[in-house]
């Protein structure tokens, strides 16, 4: 398969297994969920759009062909994320690798994604750029609480830390089976909150 064919395939669909394998092969000190969150933040209009590479790799070596290939893949993924974020159909989704076998794992992966996104927001200065945007600021201010939310084994998840405006937007769970417990509903709400918030921050950063 040619480079262009690979680029087009990734642009249409980011396979979570392929992405996880790429993160593992690159021997990064981060989980796939964390890396996806970080790349999502760098899709915003920022002064250093390629700063994600130095955030992921401690020492960049342009003479290292394997590293160059790996970074090229992550850049293609970043471009695909940006396309999803800009999609009028709201196709963007958090890339939480399907290795989550328990609710504990799912919460941990969600927390990892939020941690990567939060690092990217801090590195790029998007929080300062959008300080006058009330909705974006509320979402960004919620990120530290989400990255530190308790795991189910420790205590029940609480969404009280989220802004009231966003909680009101995602209170309707009529399409979720009644057999799911409150904790699962909470984590689904937080995942949707992160998804919608990331889209809003992206669009706000590129607004004229």
Short description:
Helices cover 62% and strands 0% of the residues. The protein has 208 residues and is mainly α.
Helix share, percent? 55-70%
Q: Classify the fold: give the CATH topology.
A: Four Helix Bundle (Hemerythrin (Met), subunit A)
Q: Could you give the order of the helices and strands?
A: HHHHHHHHHH
- What portion of residues belong to β-strands? under 5%
Radius of gyration, CA atoms, in whole angstroms: 17 Å
Backbone structural class: mainly alpha
Low-confidence stretches: 1-9, 154-161, 169-180
Count of domains: 1
Number of strands: 0
Average pLDDT over all residues: 82
The CATH architecture classification is: Up-down Bundle
CATH class: Mainly Alpha
Largest sheet: none
N- to C-terminal distance: 39 Å
Say which CATH homologous superfamily is assigned: YgfB uncharacterised protein family PF03695
With helices defined by DSSP (H or I, 4 residues minimum), what is the helix count? 10
Instruction: Give the CA-based shape.
Output: globular
Secondary-structure map with pairings?
Layout: H1 3-12, H2 16-25, H3 32-41, H4 51-56, H5 65-86, H6 103-124, H7 126-129, H8 134-147, H9 164-169, H10 182-206
Helix pairs in contact: 1-5, 3-6, 6-8, 6-10, 8-10
Describe the protein in words.
This protein is mainly α. The chain has one domain: YgfB uncharacterised protein family PF03695 (Four Helix Bundle (Hemerythrin (Met), subunit A), Up-down Bundle). 62% of the residues lie in helices and 0% in strands. The chain is built from ten helices and no strands. α6 packs parallel to α10 and α8 packs across α10. The chain is globular and about 50 Å long.
